[in-house]
């Protein structure tokens, strides 16, 4: 039986950037995200009598490129005492590995399609825990709107829940694609190296308070608070990268130019904020009335820049 699930990517406003347990993907901090309508993965899982096969965007991947997927599926099979080979088809409507967190939608859709294929009855909390083992950020893509991944302390207690799946807030995200090539350092490696920074522990200590402030900004529909806190949290994440031993950064010269453009737009009365993940691309948080002006500014500053508009996306869904 072939089963297909769709999951949207999410962007973290309070970042997950460190693991307490690599194998179970238990995080060192809680995180909070916004699920995006413009980017998603459709993934189908089907049992087969032939060998395992993984197709990404219609192309069959070799054993090395399929390893993470099948290691994960094997882990799920072991968990539910299942066996057998599988064919996986995944279509990513996200620029893969360009810092737009394609792994969040990919593993959320894969977990859901796997459970549907084997007719395993899971609720969203359980699905979030299963997706988390594939990729931490995938735990949040089970839900639409705003989601919180509570760090927990073991497999049972570390999962995401919906904060507000249908927020009435005026919030838009502009994904500015400056460099859509594959990223240089995976999130998994980057977040490990970041822990050598002298500022890593002090940052973790602030997590509770930043999360609480973000939750209250959301419930008060306070865009200024939400945007400035998201920007601060992203800068804290990139500061621990820069101060790791040895230091590193995902920023490219264009990343800095984009940051400066957001800052100058703000000074000129167009309220917007940036957040940046494990790649050079910048995401701009803004409100509907300023979208056109911000896009115009980026297009005049950067040649051939690609900007994708996004807003609140929905949670996991099943296509067959
Ligand atoms: C910067 O979820 O890709 O996007 O658990 O190792 O697969 P793994 O990491 P991943 O990391 C996402 C990091 C981030 C911040 C975030 O989404 O919270």
From TrEMBL:
Keywords per UniProt: ATP-binding, Lipid biosynthesis, Lipid metabolism, Lyase, Nucleotide-binding
One example GO MF annotation: ATP binding
The keyword Zinc-finger belongs to this UniProt entry's keyword annotation: no
GO process terms (BP): isopentenyl diphosphate biosynthetic process, mevalonate pathway
Any one Gene Ontology cellular component term annotated for this protein: cytosol
This protein's name: diphosphomevalonate decarboxylase
Segments crossing the lipid bilayer: none
Domain Mvd1 C-terminal: start-end pairs: 179-309
The family this protein is said to belong to: Belongs to the diphosphomevalonate decarboxylase family.
Enzyme Commission identifier(s): 4.1.1.33
Nucleotide-binding keyword on record: yes
Domain Diphosphomevalonate decarboxylase-like N-terminal, first and last residues per copy: 7-160
InterPro entries assigned: GHMP_kinase_C_sf (IPR036554), Mev_decarb (IPR005935), Mev_diP_decarb (IPR029765), MVD-like_N (IPR053859), Mvd1_C (IPR041431), Ribosomal_Su5_D2-typ_SF (IPR020568), Ribsml_uS5_D2-typ_fold_subgr (IPR014721)
